[in-house]
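Subject: Protein record for review, amino acid sequence with backbone structure tokens
Why sent: The fold of this protein is of interest and is recorded here as tokens.
Notation: Tokens come from a learned vocabulary of local backbone shapes, not from coordinates.
Attached in line: The record itself begins immediately under this heading.
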Amino acid sequence: MLGWCYILGLIVDRIADIIYDKRKMHIKEKYPIEAETSIIVWEHFKQDAFATFTLSRIRLMRSTALNSFAMLIVCTYAVIKYHCGWKITMLTVVGFLTMAIASDLAHFNLLNNYYKKTMKLENSYLNKGDVKSSEKASSQS
């Protein structure tokens, strides 16, 4: 059973990745990063563990948003089908909708902050490189 859950999790994560890819590209375009991958920038500053942790949080929020929306549909259907009353129906809808929206907003903020920080780190690195090369040039003349 655990194996099936793992496989289902991989499938859901892949679906969420496809759904949220457009958002990721839109945010990534706002922060021009020259490095081939963002993790290279973080590794230079010895913060790759924090970057990996942040990327895991981003994936978790992405999957939580998708799962909450799916649960909203399934649970609302079940509550309506078994005539549990309008109070339970509304509680189910509001609860899962709130979780889906909160997860979606958290995903957006985490992704935005991740790329903003990556761009700042890369700019810091590039500016230090420019300073060193200009110092070498001035000392040689």
